[in-house]
Design goal:
InterPro entries: Metallo-B-lactamas (IPR001279), RibonucZ/Hydroxyglut_hydro (IPR036866). Keywords: Hydrolase. The chain is α/β, with parallel strands linked by helices. The protein has a single domain (about 1-250), classed as Metallo-beta-lactamase, Chain A, CATH 3.60.15. It is about 15% helix and about 30% strand. Strand 2 and strand 3 (about 45-50) form a beta hairpin.
């Protein structure tokens, strides 16, 4: 099974519009961080976690031609607003979409045209999706078991996901005690770490490192990174077995 980092950047993406800092001007391709998302691929199974703002560009880069399901961590714009770009992938059948209750409500509100029964929009003008709740005990998609992991993004309850021996947790500032058992025995962890400086709704780099050590995964990658540090700088400051993710990184598990 393979997990591909579709995007490794924070909500504004890197380079940041109007910014001329050294990271935004970097020639290192690993410093080009589009909005965060993860693609899970195994033989004939394709699963996407979040439709980031750059989903179209990311999907073309990775050669995605079909999806079996989409899961959402939460409904902030950088994780949701690429939803319309799944239209070419829903020509033949509706896309199963799994999300928490608040995210489902936001999808129905922000993309109300998807669900409209008005005859005024025909043809390929809207994606076809089927909204499903996110069961606490997980879902199985073509033999792949995915378990939601409740975490907090500030005061907002959102979800990470565990797929076998890998977990994906982004936009997190606190993991409740009851979620740690869901992360027991991990080999590989992808976790959000915005920057060195503290932030009220995201783990700092030091906090994410501490969480990774507490969880005890064999290997950890930091994602949802801002433009405070380059990829090479992060590599130099991080301990062994923890490194920054980058767009297009493939992780076998």
């Amino acid at each position: 099974m393979e997990a591909i980092i579709m995007g490794s950047g924070t909500s504004h993406g890197i380079p940041v519009v109007g910014c001329s800092c050294r990271v935004c001007r970097s020639d290192d391709s690993r410093d080009k961080r589009s909005r965060a998302s993860l693609f899970i691929r195994d033989k004939e199974v394709n699963i996407l976690i979040d439709t980031s703002t750059e989903f179209r560009i990311q999907a073309i880069r990775e050669g995605i031609t079909c999806l079996d399901a989409i899961l959402y961590t939460h409904s902030h714009a950088d994780h949701l607003h690429g939803l319309d770009d799944i239209r070419p992938l829903t020509k033949d059948r509706p896309m199963p979409v799994y999300a928490g209750e608040s995210t489902q409500r936001d999808i129905e509100k922000r993309f109300d045209y998807i669900f409209s029964t008005s005859p005024g929009q025909k043809g390929g003008g809207r994606p076809k999706i089927e909204l499903h709740p996110l069961p606490a005990d997980g879902i199985t998609i073509k033999g792949i078991r995915i378990v939601p992991v409740p975490v907090f993004h500030g005061e907002l309850l959102i979800y990470g996901f565990r797929i076998g021996e890998l977990a994906y947790i982004t936009d997190c500032s606190r993991i409740p005690e009851e979620s740690y058992p869901l992360l027991k025995g991990l080999r590989k962890l992808i976790i959000g770490a915005l920057r060195k400086r503290p932030h009220p709704t995201h783990f700092s780099i030091d906090e994410a490192v501490a969480e990774a050590e507490k969880i005890g995964a064999e290997q950890t990658w930091l994602t949802h990174l801002c433009h405070d540090h380059s990829h090479m700088e992060l590599l130099e400051m991080l301990p062994k077995k923890i490194e920054p993710a980058w767009d297009g990184l493939s992780i076998s598990f």
